[in-house]
Design brief:
CATH superfamily: Jelly Rolls
Helix content: 10-25%
Strand order of the largest sheet: 1-10-7-12-5-4
CATH topology: Jelly Rolls
Mean pLDDT: 87
Number of domains: 1
Radius of gyration: 16 Å
Oligomer: single chain
CATH architecture: Sandwich
Distance between the termini: 30 Å
């Protein structure tokens, strides 16, 4: 069996002053899109982003039962979210239902496990990455992964996400079953995660 890892990890290069962008400029860009941006385009935006906690403090909302999805901007072409994670919180194993996604780690240490779909229908892990603040990762279609905050108790994690087009329906998977679940976008700001 051949496994193709389309998930990419980008090391942020020091952007020159003329190409650096603030979080507010990125929010404005998302709100004014006229077409779906490519994975490469979003990766470029994230690599030139200068962001500090004070820039996203008003969106830094946590939930106790699951990670919180805090909406920063949404258009018909893309959405920008700040996800806030307590220790132990995680996504289910999922794909992005036809959307590309880019994640920037703002605080904490992100654990990402990549999965391959087996012929029988269940999934199996094939690689795990740990990403610290400033790391950028991009997921193309049809990547299947799980994001986790595996840091010790009381260590929060904050990640910035862009999905193009916006997530509307995801597929969820299990290593123990061939059943494919569905998740529909349904909440922002302090909700219960997918």
């Amino acid at each position: 069996m051949q496994v193709r890892d389309t998930n990419t990890n980008f090391l942020r290069e020091r952007a020159s002053t003329s190409t650096e962008h603030t979080l507010q400029e990125l929010i404005d860009r998302m709100s004014n899109l006229t077409s779906i941006p490519s994975l490469a385009m979003i990766e470029q935006w994230f690599s030139s982003l200068l962001v500090s906690q004070r820039d996203f403090q008003r969106y830094r909302v946590f939930a106790e039962r699951s990670y919180a999805r805090n909406l920063l901007a949404r258009s018909p072409f893309a959405e920008l979210l700040l996800l806030c994670w307590r220790s132990g919180q995680r996504t289910p194993i999922h794909d992005h239902g036809g959307s590309v996604g880019v994640v920037l780690v703002c605080e904490g240490l992100l654990t990402e496990t990549m999965y391959d779909r087996m012929p029988e229908g269940h999934v199996r892990p094939y690689n795990t990455f740990r990403r610290g603040p400033g790391s950028i990762t991009g997921a193309d279609v049809p990547d299947i992964h799980q994001l986790l905050n595996l840091q010790p108790d009381s260590r929060d994690m904050v990640t910035l996400h862009c999905y193009a087009p916006p997530l509307s329906e995801l597929n969820t998977y299990s290593p123990h079953s061939s059943r494919v679940g569905r998740w529909r976008e349904g909440y922002f700001l302090g909700g219960a995660g997918i």
